Amino acid sequence: MGYLCGVIPPRPENEAARLANLREYAILDSLPEDEFDDLTTIAAHICGTPVSLISLLDEQRQWFKSAVGVPEGMEGSPRDAAFCSYNILDPAAPLVVPDARVDPRFENNELVHQEPHVVFYAGVPLVSREGYALGSLCVIDHVPRELSDSQMQALKRLARQVIKLFELRKALAEAKQRAREREQAYRILRDFSHVIAHDLKAPLRNIRQAGEMLEEDYLSLLPEDGAELLQMIQERAEDATDMIEGVLRYSQVARNLREAHEEVVVQQCIDQALRHLGYPDDCRVVYVGAVERVYTSSLALLQVIQNLIGNAIKFSNRDDCRVVIDCVHEPGNQFVFTVNDNGPGIPAENQRDIFRLFHSAGTGKTRSHGVGLSIVKRLVETIGGTVSVASEVGQGTTFTFTIPDQD
């Protein structure tokens, strides 16, 4: 036999906005979570009641995010029968019902005469950051009673913790969504850059081949200004090819960094970078650091060191080109690498832009489009480090990058 719910509780004046705010938390019908169950268990223990609930008020129902002391499978009730429907009317005040059997609002309520047999009820509104009462943290007993001041204060504090869990849960969901969106955007950008760069390589290759054929067969027939124009066309085609290769490298650079980190021998990493660069005879590269091994992405460290050494060699204007690499360990914090060269240095006004993709630097045979240093910055930041530069014209350049200590 069922019971009437008694007096139909009114709806808050801001009901539409309250429901919209509740839905922003995406918590209705979510799976049980230990953090919420811990709070209802503590509330029941402190207040000495057999029942404790975290109750949320949807449009037509009351739903329990966490419930202690109710029959298994009981997930809520019709909203018009919910004591919490009265509790949300004043977000600033708790609702205490010493004996629901003699309260005109609840004397015929089905929750009083059936499970969970509510006689005593004390609830604190769960008020969101926006000021809406989303539901209640409540305790229930099957006999009339009261709560002490200290018990009520504890219930209020626990209600604030429930809201903090709601906010953390919401923030985590939003962060995951942003991460998914960034990953999707990255995939689209990576695929787009790959397709565009790939499609541009063929016509540029044809331009370069045509230029080579013109130079081989007709250079002697061209006037001086015609030969200069032909050389300019070939140089610009070569520049464009380098930029396209840079786009491809930049779009692929972090793709494999999800591989497990490993122990990397620093000197071996430097030797490998030099092999890739062709062991330049006109520049001396030495490692003077005391750190023998680091635990990081071997791929990232190799690419960073290779790009920085290659950059120093490319811009060197000295017969005694020298690159000195050092590494110090800050225990429990990070490894600090420095790559110092004795090259021409970088003007102060250019130092802020050198890590920007396609930043142009240098002239003549050392003209650069900045892809290498952009890759360095992206790699270092992907593995959790930082990179910076210090330089003085005529005195060389020092690049400093850090790698988190994984120990």
What's the SSE blueprint?
Blueprint: H1 15-24, H2 34-47, E1 51-57, E2 61-68, E3 76-78, H3 84-87, E4 95-97, H4 110-113, E5 120-127, E6 133-141, H5 149-218, H6 224-252, E7 262-265, H7 266-277, E8 283-287, E9 293-296, H8 298-315, E10 321-330, E11 334-341, H9 371-382, E12 387-392, E13 396-404
Parallel strand pairs: 8-10
Antiparallel strand pairs: 1-2, 1-6, 2-3, 4-5, 5-6, 7-9, 10-11, 11-13, 12-13
Helix pairs in contact: 2-5, 5-6, 6-9, 7-8, 8-9
Question: Could you explain the architecture of this structure?
Answer:
This protein is of the alpha+beta class. It has two domains: about 15-175, GAF domain (Beta-Lactamase), CATH 3.30.450; about 255-405, Histidine kinase-like ATPase, C-terminal domain (Heat Shock Protein 90). About 45% of the residues lie in helices and about 20% in strands. Strand 12 (about 385-390) and strand 13 (about 395-405) form a beta hairpin. Helix 6 (about 225-250) packs parallel to helix 9 and helix 8 runs antiparallel to helix 9. Its EC number is 2.7.13.3.
